[in-house]
Amino acid sequence: MDDLSGASLGQFSLTLIDGCVVATIQSDLHDEVFRRFSENVLAKIEQTRAGALLLDLSNVYVLDPRDFESIRKIMRMTGLMGARSILVGLRPGVAASLAELNADLTGVTAMGSVEQALQAIRGR
Amino acid sequence: MTNESQGEFLGSVEEHLLIHGIKPDDLENVRKFGAAIGDRMPEYIRHFYAWLETRPDYREYFHDGDLLGRVQSSQIDHWQSFFDARVDEAYLATRVQLGEAHARIGLPLPSYFAGVSQSFVIFTEKLYEGGLSPEEHAASMISIVKLLNLDTTIVVDTFSKLVAEQFAEQSMALAEMSTPVTAIWDDILMLPIVGIIDSNRAQDVMAAVLAKIMETRAKVFIMDISGVAVVDTAVANHLIKITKATKLMGCECMISGLSPAIAQTIVDLGIETGDVRTTTTLRDALEVGFATIGVSVSRA
Question: In angstroms, rounded to a whole number, what is the distance separating the alpha carbons of residues B163 and B106?
Fold first, then answer.
């Protein structure tokens, strides 16, 4: 069940904090990595019955529209599994380039830090 | 005036002579011509100012007598050194100083060029009364023009470098002044935008705001556009991009200061504002902001 091949390569890591899955992404998410990543994330949510997924992008310095679309897909899948998802810690350069490229942000929630996101979830 | 600024510009003496094709013969010709004018050199000032007084910008630059005296004596020195034609480091340095002085007082370059050609006319037509053979005279004319070109090149280059520096400093100061992102409360940032928004300015604003969000982890950003002159499709798109980027960083962006005229334009132009929160006054935006971060304000 627990396929940690991606995590062992240091490309992403998954931790459970306060009933939320925190997924930290370390490198770019092309195809294979992304497929493994989404499988792992969804499995973890099912396993832990987590109420929310926090996608921590604070180590990602470059994100093209295609990667962003991949992330949106994971967020939609998470929603289908009954959990909410929050983008966390986007860097200024990444935020600016996504805005410049006019990325579609409908339904996307973003927070500054994992701490802020956890607070917001607890508050509700 | 400082050694530093001279060092920045000056190439070697040989380079300058090479650029303008000045050979030792040329310098000798200039000296011969200078010797032919001889004692009449000081008369240059009389002729030059007779001409200068007819110029419209004369009064602007020479309103006080002291200044006039100093300028005149340095002019004499300048032309003495020109006709001595000893082109060395010191010679080049004085030309750099001249360029700096002109840039400082903001003398327009056309006026400077007019002065140079007038000086040429004075020396060659008014002060020269013969003494050279026709061949020598013709050769010296060419040599004088070459050396004049060397002078003006240095003056103009120094001048334009200084003006460019001033311009760069000013636009930097302006850019800083135009993006004063301030934390007005815990978790609330504010930026009043005044004037015109073009894509450069929008990028500056975006960069400044995102950096500030990164630094303060603010949750609300209020952009007040009551001072923005015109809102058209391009401007609206810039503003919407900024709100998107701040949203991605976990900071809700509100736009305050939407006047009735701006509201009308936005709808008339069919601009899609999406889910951007907008208010008429800064006060309203602040209230929404307080609600967002969970602060309640009441009178004591």
Answer: 9
- List B residues 226-265 in contact with A (Cβ-Cβ < 8 A): 241-242, 244-251
Quick: pLDDT tens for B206-241: 999 999 999 999 999 999 998 887 888 888 888 889
> Which segments of chain A are extended strands (E)?
12-17, 20-25, 52-56, 84-88, 110-111
- Number of folded domains in chain A? 1
Cβ within 8 Å, pair A105-B210: no
Domains of chain B: 3-173 (1.10.490.10), 182-293 (3.30.750.24)
pTM summary value: 0.58
For testing the chain B interface, which of A67, A68, A90, A102 should be mutated: the one with the most B CBs within 10 Å? Answer: A90
pLDDT interval class at A56 (50, 70, 90): very high
- Tell me the chain A residues in contact with residue B219 when contact means C-beta distances shorter than 8 Å: 112, 116
Would you call A113 and B247 a contact, using CB atoms and an 8 Å cutoff?
no
DSSP per-residue letters across B104-158: HHT--HHHHHHHHHHHHHIIIIII----S-HHHHHHHHHHHHHHHHHHHHHHHHH
Angle at the Cα of B70 from the Cα atoms of B115 and B9, rounded to 5 degrees: 60
Q: Do A113 and B206 touch (CB under 8 A)?
A: no
**Contact between B126 and B86 (Cβ < 8 Å):** no
